[in-house]
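[job 0412] stage=complex_fold ligand=magnesium ion status=START
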Amino acid sequence: MNSRDQHLGMYQRLLEHMSTAVLLLNDQLQLQWMNPAAEALLALSLARVRAQALLELIHVDETIGERLSQSLRERHPFTQREARLTLATGDTLTVDYTASPISEHELLLEVEPRDRLLRISREEALQARQETIKILTRGLAHEVKNPLGGIRGAAQLLERDLQDPAQAEFTHIIIEEVDRLRDLVDSMLGPNHVVRHSALNIHRVLEHVAVLLTAEYPCINIIRDYDPSLPALHGDESQLIQAILNIMRNAAQAMIEGTTEQPELVLRTRARRQFTLGAKRHRLVCKVAIIDNGPGISDGFGETLFYPMVSGRAEGSGLGLSIAQSILHQHHGLIEYESRPGHTEFRLLIPLETPHD
Ligand SMILES: Nc1ncnc2c1ncn2[C@@H]1O[C@H](COP(=O)(O)OP(=O)(O)OP(=O)(O)O)[C@@H](O)[C@H]1O
Ligand SMILES: [Mg+2]
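[job 0412] stage=complex_fold status=DONE, emitting structure tokens
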């Protein structure tokens, strides 16, 4: 093999191992070549689609064909950010791509998926914000809690010295209200017992909560769609029960108050491989989806839904989801949601590797 061939072999290997998707088109915008990263990203096989027009295989927008041809004609490279692609599989992707004409008849395309990146930075920002809010509420809760013991003790002393027993009603009110405030503040401070992690079966947790919910709301039809091959999870069982109960109870309340005709709750579990949560990539992540067919969550909430004291219900304290989210953070996971009328889905994502990994 001469040195030119050796170089060609090396370039080929480089291209094949790159994580950037690279495609080569001719002047008819037909696919001449693509690397494995492009095959994976676009869900195409080079052997099957070689020489086919790229824009018949994936849908971008109407103007793209003309832009690519013009770039080739004028030998002028261009970059497009956040373009939406629709693949033959029906999946959609957001990508950045650069088109570089390398001769009169050859156009090189480099395609970089954005969805993952956008999602990762969004999750990181979200986690940082929630951390700040947690520190703020904890500080505030702590300050509120401090004088409560004193007020309660003083009311008790006062009660002992009262001449008119009818006035005891007032000291009772003070004591009861102080207790109510203390309970509220305690739940704002979040779960305070030491986290006890052990191997647990997520389906047992879900079944436990399903039994509790059925006792409270017998009219809700619970549909299970479990992945029985999910391995054991490392976590604190009673806390995960709490988190899932908070979410399921919200769904039940929304369906009952929204007078949904046939209230239905789907519990779905799945394993996701090589999944990035926050900035960390995990080998295996457990996904639990809790889906209801209630009226949905109004658009205005966005991620503030997870903030403490944010509630859409007159009698709600707005702590359920903020507690659930902080429990998931303790498990290095997170909760996300999407909602439209008739379909509200809360997804819990929990890494499955043991702490030793
Ligand atoms: N599945 C759902 N469908 C419709 N709205 C929901 C759903 N889940 C949550 N919500 C909305 O999100 C709000 C916040 O929920 P969160 O559990 O944090 O507080 P809460 O239910 O109002 O009070 P708490 O749980 O502390 O009693 C709810 O008040 C409700 O408006
Ligand atoms: Mg709630």
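The longest helix spans residues 115-160.
[job 0412] exit 0
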